[in-house]
Amino acid sequence: MGRVTTVTVVVGMLALAGCTSQAVEPPGLTASPTPQASAEATPEPTPESSTQDMSDPELGIIFDDVPTLTGDEADVWNTVATYQVEYWRTMTTNTVSPAFAVIASADVQAVMERIATNNTADAVDIGGTFRTRVSDVTVTGDTATAAVCDDYRDATFADADGPDTPETAGFGYPRRETVQLQRLGDRWVIGTTAGEGSC
Questions:
Q1: 81 touches 63 (CB < 8 A)
Q2: How far is residue 188 from each of residues 3, 154, 179, measured CA to CA in Å?
């Protein structure tokens, strides 16, 4: 079996101008009005984002060491975690997840298209369990970075020649990547990912 196409993407930060999303109105109040109006209105606290464990055993992805983050750091973590889920969905189906159109730059989307096309052409079948860890989230204004550690040792690989091991498929050690993001309006978008050896 040849090496399976990897996800390491090294692309320039793209000009992400013109990509905007519509504002989402907050849900309406459900409480009944009180009979007496208070002299001073107490502002409602703004709900703050928090990290979400996006592990999906049915899909075969497990997030290790999910941190407790809030605010922008949580939004960045959740965006990178969503990217990881959709990356694994793409790898296991050889079909590019439509979520990349929302969470990733055009260059990253193009790389995912190539991965899916090449793996389909080589009759690559990937499954099993993919373990990943997102850490070291840093937010500076409208840019952010995060580290990702991907572990494929419990994943399964096969192609037209039959089954293979993670080692001979090129996935035999945990891989570290740095993910760079840019804020566009009210969301974060994956701009680049760069492999940095093992983790």
A1: yes
A2: 32, 30, 12
pLDDT score at 49: 81
CA distance 142 to 144: 7
Q: Give the closest residue to 58 by CA, choosing from 84, 33, 88.
A: 88
Neighbours of 93 (CB within 10 A): 14
Average pLDDT for 26-32: 35
Report the Cα 43 to chain-centroid distance in Å.
Answer: 34
| Amino acid of residue 179 | V
Whether the Cβ atoms of residue 44 and residue 30 lie closer than 8 Å to each other: no
Residue type, 89: R
Which residues make Cβ contacts (< 8 Å) with residue 159, sequence separation at least 6? Answer: 1, 2, 4, 122, 123, 124, 125
Note the helical H segments in 25-147: 71-93, 100-103, 106-121
**pTM for the full predicted model:** 0.77
Is residue 21 scored above 80 in pLDDT? no
